[in-house]
Amino acid sequence: MYSHFMQDQHEAGHKGIFLAGDDVSWTPAWAEGAVQTALNAVWGIMTHFGGGSSTQNPGPGDVFAEIGPLKLPE
Questions:
Q1: Helix, strand or coil for residue 57?
Q2: CA separation for the pair 5, 34 (Å, rounded)
Q3: Sign of the CA dihedral 59, 34, 69, 9?
Q4: Does the pLDDT of residue 73 top 90, yes or no?
Q5: Is 1 exposed, middle or buried (0-12, 13-18, 19+ CB in 10 A)?
Q6: ∠ CA 44-70-22 to the nearest 5 degrees?
Q7: 48: buried, middle or exposed (CB in 10 Å: 19+, 13-18, 0-12)?
Q8: Which of its termini does the chain have fewer beta carbons within 10 Å around, N or C?
Q9: How far is CA 52 from CA 10, 19, 56, 57, 72, in A?
Q10: Strand, helix or coil for residue 31
Q11: What is the pLDDT of residues 57-72, one digit of tens each?
């Protein structure tokens, strides 16, 4: 759920729904998780409608490859 805002790999019919709140974060029941997922969702909505972040202040999706969850080997 945490990385659902990264929708570039989704099929067209599965794009456009963005969730936010502490219940979809790594820190449930904390305001920090709600704020973090809200920022992620706003970035997702912005890019969904063709917007973008400043190169001087990249959004969470712009740096997701560096800060996102690690993919563990099988």
A1: strand
A2: 14
A3: negative
A4: yes
A5: exposed
A6: 50
A7: middle
A8: C
A9: 19, 19, 12, 11, 30
A10: helix
A11: 999 999 998 988 888 9
CA distance 43 to 57: 12
Is the distance from CB of 57 to CB of 34 less than 8 angstroms?
A: no
Dist CA 64 CA 55 (whole Å)? 14
Structure tokens of 3?
Answer: 């990385």
* Cβ-contact 71, 6 below 8 angstroms: no
Q: How many alpha carbons lie under 13 Å from residue 42 in its C-beta half-sphere?
A: 10
Q: How far apart are alpha carbons 49 and 56 in whole angstroms? A: 21
Show the tokens assigned to 61: 């999706």
pLDDT tens digits, 41-52: 999 999 999 999
